[in-house]
Amino acid sequence: MKKKNKKKNKKRSNYRLVKILGGLLAVLALALAGAGYYFFNMAVVPGKKSFVTNGTVQLTKSTPQYKQKLWYKQVTKQHWQLRSAKNNYLLRANYIPAKNSAKTVIILHGYMSNKENMGAYAQLFHSLGYNTLLPDAEAHGQSQGKYVGYGWLEKNDVKKWAEQVIKKNGQKSKIVIFGVSMGGATTMMTSGLNLPKQVKCFIEDCGYTSAKNEIEYEAQALYNMPAFPRFPLVEILSGITKLKAGYFLAQASSLAQLKKNTRPMLFIHGSKDTFVPTKMVYKNYRASRGPKQLLIVKGAKHAKSYEHNPALYARTVKQFLAKYVK
User: Fold this and answer.
1) 224: how many CB neighbours lie within 10 A of its CB?
2) E strands within 87-240?
3) Average model confidence (pLDDT) for the chain?
4) β-pairing, 90-96 with 78-83?
5) DSSP 71
């Protein structure tokens, strides 16, 4: 009898332990799912973010590159629009023509920014004789959309903008795609598509290697998140992003798309970039299969290379374009 009672007690103890462990695992799973949705709203759902400048930056005389940005604000603009490649969202852009020019640059802004913040770049390219097209990405500025695509959703829209340039400006169009930060990543991801022959080259400034790599880096840099729970939290976030927005974070890969690219690309990055770490540009540069050039701007922080050293930046861009857009 004693042996039977011991066995029964042991079974009961094991059962209680399994219940406790099961309960703990269920609580952990719920906590991770809740955290995943929190970070999904932080990272993928548009809105005010504490870690980036949101909306249009106000222009004052103390604003860096004031003259260039004032030029953009005052110049006459055409307003273009098209429907997104996915979900049929209405996308809007500003277009500034240059006199008798077949050359057009498509300028892509960063995460939670918009076309109005890209005025200094527009002025630079316009001074080099380029028509400038500045779209608002999906869910940014005046464009419709529900989620941020980190370049993966936006790349197909950029292709459509290039096709619209050709439709409006003719088959002799010569197109350059340029972007900063998320716009730089979008530029690299676009480079791996089957693009019209009129797209001659790309310039990317401080884009990341992939959305997953960038979010993992930010989880550590912004939230001091250790390896656990960073894994599996980023994987959960990626799964939610797939369910809600239609892509896994690892899919949004500059590296994978660059391996398909054979056209010229200029890579630019600041040496003091701690938001998209400078080390990422070397991986991106090595991945591209076309003619390529790398500019590291000493002392420049994230998306500040042009502002930090405008003469070097403008000279490098001018020389690169002269080589590949004839």
Assistant:
1) 7
2) 90-96, 103-108, 131-135, 174-180, 199-205
3) 92
4) antiparallel
5) H
pLDDT (tens digit, 9 = 90+) per residue, 185-235? Answer: 999 999 999 999 999 999 999 999 999 999 999 988 888 888 887 888 999
**Residue 56 has what pLDDT?**
78
Q: What is the mean pLDDT of residues 53-69?
A: 86
Distance CA 281, CA 292 (A): 12
Q: What is the DSSP letter of 146?
A: S
Q: Of 17, 305, 12, which is closest to residue 180 (Cα–Cα)?
A: 305
Alpha-carbon span 259 to 286, nearest angstrom: 9
CA distances from 166 to 116, 172, 204, 256 (A): 24, 8, 22, 27
DSSP calls for 35-52: HHHHHHHHHTS-S--TTS
Residue 37 has a pLDDT of 86
CA distance 271 to 180: 15
CA 12 to mean position of chain CA atoms: 55
CA distances for 164 relative to 57, 181, 291, angstroms: 28, 24, 26
Q: What is the mean pLDDT of the segment spanning 261-274? A: 98
Instruction: Give 141-188 pLDDT, tens digit per residue.
Output: 999 999 999 999 999 999 999 999 999 999 999 999 999 999 999 999
DSSP string, 205-270: ES--SBHHHHHHHHHHHHH---HHHHHHHHHHHHHHHHHHHS--GGGSBHHHHHTT--S-EEEEEE
62 by DSSP, 3-state: which? coil
Q: How many CB atoms lie within 10 A of CB 168?
A: 15
- Among 35-44, 86-95, 104-113, 313-322, the minimum mean pLDDT is found in 35-44
* pTM, full prediction: 0.91
On the question of a cis peptide bond just before residue 46, with omega within 30 degrees of 0, the verdict is: no
Task: Report yes or no: 35 and 233 within 8 Å, Cβ to Cβ.
Answer: yes
A 10 A CB-CB count for 109 gives 25
Residue of 136, 134, 128, 68 whose CA lies nearest to 98: 128
More confident residue, 11 or 45: 45
